[in-house]
Amino acid sequence: MAQVISPMEIKDVALRNMQQRNLHDLQAIATELSQHKFPYPFYFSRKLDIEEALQKQTDQRSIRFEMYDNKKALVITGNYYASYSDELVDADHRLRRTFTDVMLPILQAEVPRLASVPGLEVFAIEVSHHVRRKMMGLNGEYAENVVIAVPRELALRVVEARDPQEQQTLMLDAEVYHSGEPTVLWLAGERPALPDRAAPEAAEPLVASVHPTVANEAGGRSDVPSLPTLARATVPPELRAAPVHDLPAAAARDLSAAGLKALQEKFQPSIETMVHEHGADAHFVSYAPPAFIAFKQATYLQLSMTTQLDAGVADSQYKLAALAFDRHIAHLVRPLVGYFKDGADFDGIDFSTTVKLAGDAENAHALAVEFILPLSALNCFRDYDCTGQQLLNAGIILINGERSGLELQAAEAK
Questions:
Q1: d(CA 105, CA 305)
Q2: CA-to-CA distance for 119 and 65, rounded, in angstroms?
Q3: Cα-based torsion angle of the residue sequence 259, 262, 266, 270 in order, rounded to the nearest 10 degrees
Q4: What pairs with residue 351 in β-bridges?
Q5: Helix/strand number for the chain, H first, E second
Q6: Interval 57-108: pLDDT, tens
């Protein structure tokens, strides 16, 4: 549910007073937006680019007054869990969809209530969405941040505009940033093959007076980050393939019990051969035979196994997980993936292992690790086109049930 920053959290006296005086209207905006049906899940948030599962448990108060380019602004931050295909939806159309589906409804909720507030000069909105792109043969996913800053009088005209063409003409006078770069919002037809209009200098595109007690992310605080910090956010270099909500939708999978049963029956002969020929190396557990599961709107073959490591090799769960991959799982990928065609009717393999230390008779230090890896990345690794780290970056890693990042070299060096 959309929420409002408490006035007491705002250090600037003038901004705190604005927050207090307009608290009723801010709460009304929060209520209206919490009831709005966005096409895909949208959460107000203190930070951009948070996994949806974590976002649901994270403080979602984000509606506040703060300084933007030395002007008093109402700022709203949020995460939009739609994932665009880079091949099917170019940057202009991604920006258009996120503005139309998310940012415009926010403007329509806030501008009529607050346009007459004394001293308010700008309405600023920052939203993170996701993009799927193939890099080095792997399907990866990363966040794109979109920021708009609309002067008050212009915002009134935008929300009263009758069609996208009129909105587009008006938004040419607003500031729009796409992944930190100034751009033009194009809402009707295709962008003409002309140079973009003059934009603010990119070196310091946003200048805000934000108090360090509110915005000091470098100090490890979880408070509201400043607008310029978010606008200049860079795309993370690592590949990530955590499925969010596909837009447009990928090939639908039958995740029902009947659908998973049909997959099991289709591949059971290959599974039985695999277990017979590699059971000794893989250390499959007898009480949990290989089975298809549904995970994040996709289907995976879950292989339950045990990984035995030498006593005293690690005192960190991340090092144990890294060693389990390098010494056990990585050696299984090529032989096991070979039992399934590249175009198999499922999405990946879940290598679910219990990491045990030699001499730990009571398994007091046992660790549950799942390497949930897409077939495309597994095939890339099989063909020696990707490294083990790239394979992990393309998948999802769960350590004792919690999602974790895993840098092999860094973890094993500890």
A1: 49
A2: 11
A3: 80
A4: 303, 371
A5: 15, 15
A6: 888 889 999 998 899 999 999 999 999 988 888 899 999 999 999 999 999 9
SS3 for 235?
coil
3-state DSSP assignment of residue 222: coil
Check: CB of residue 145 under 8 Å from CB of residue 98: no
Contact 346, 299 (CB under 8 A): yes
Q: Is residue 234 scored above 50 in pLDDT? A: no
Domain boundaries, the chain: 3-246, 251-413
The tokens of 313 are what?
């090799």
Cα 95 from Cα 137, distance rounded (Å): 26
User: What pLDDT digit, counting tens, does each position of 148-169 carry?
Assistant: 999 999 999 999 988 888 898 8
Q: Where are the beta strands (DSSP E) in 152-234?
A: 175-178, 181-182
302-328 burial, b at 16+ Cβ within 10 Å, e below that, comes to bbbbebebeeeebeebbbbbbbbbeeb
Q: Where are the beta strands (DSSP E) in 315-392?
A: 348-357, 367-374
What per-residue confidence (pLDDT) applies to 64?
A: 95
With contact defined as beta carbons under 8 Å apart, do 350 and 304 qualify? no
- 248 cis-preceded (ω within 30 degrees of 0): yes
Length of the chain equals 414
Please answer whether residues 351 and 373 qualify as being in contact, where contact means their C-beta atoms are separated by less than 8 angstroms: yes
Rounded distance, CA 214 to CA 6, Å?
A: 12
Question: What are the tokens at 122?
Answer: 């700008």
pLDDT tens, position by position, 187-205: 876 665 544 434 433 333 2
Q: Is 77 helix (H, G, I), strand (E, B) or coil?
A: strand
Nearest Cα residue to 226 out of 237, 239, 240, 216? 216
Residue corresponding to tokens 């270099």: 237
